[in-house]
């Protein structure tokens, strides 16, 4: 499900057992990350799938990348793997106006 920034952030803040998932590369993450996010690089292919399969399917995942494309792809992959609560940040971190950690 695609969410605009405000709904995405409020959803994360108000959802119990919510996880922020950053699917960018390590180089991109070095430029800043949304607080509490865990990073699993979608470009790792099968490695991405292995890492995602270890996550708790009962939790809600708020996913982002640089512009929203890779995170939308990650949402699709996760749905195929049996995750029901996945939310894509439209526009990604490039349009993010919320908190960022370096």
UniProtKB/TrEMBL annotation:
Pfam families: Rhodanese (PF00581)
InterPro entries: GlpE_sulfurtransferase, Rhodanese-like_dom, Rhodanese-like_dom_sf
GO MF, one example: transferase activity
Domain named Rhodanese: residues: 14-102
Signal peptide feature range: none
Keywords: Transferase
PANTHER family, A to Z: FAD-DEPENDENT OXIDOREDUCTASE, PYRIDINE NUCLEOTIDE-DISULPHIDE OXIDOREDUCTASE
Name the record gives this protein: Rhodanese-related sulfurtransferase
Lineage: Bacteria, Pseudomonadati, Bacteroidota, Flavobacteriia, Flavobacteriales
């Amino acid at each position: 499900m695609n969410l605009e920034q405000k709904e995405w952030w409020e959803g994360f803040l108000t959802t119990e057992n919510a996880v922020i998932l950053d699917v960018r590369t390590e180089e991109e993450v070095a430029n800043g990350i949304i607080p509490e996010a865990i990073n699993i690089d979608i470009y790792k292919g099968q490695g991405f799938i292995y890492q995602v399969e270890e996550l708790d399917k009962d939790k809600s995942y708020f996913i982002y990348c640089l512009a929203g494309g890779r995170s939308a792809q990650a949402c699709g992959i996760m749905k195929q793997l049996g995750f029901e609560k996945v939310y894509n940040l439209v526009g990604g971190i490039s349009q993010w106006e919320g908190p960022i950690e370096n």
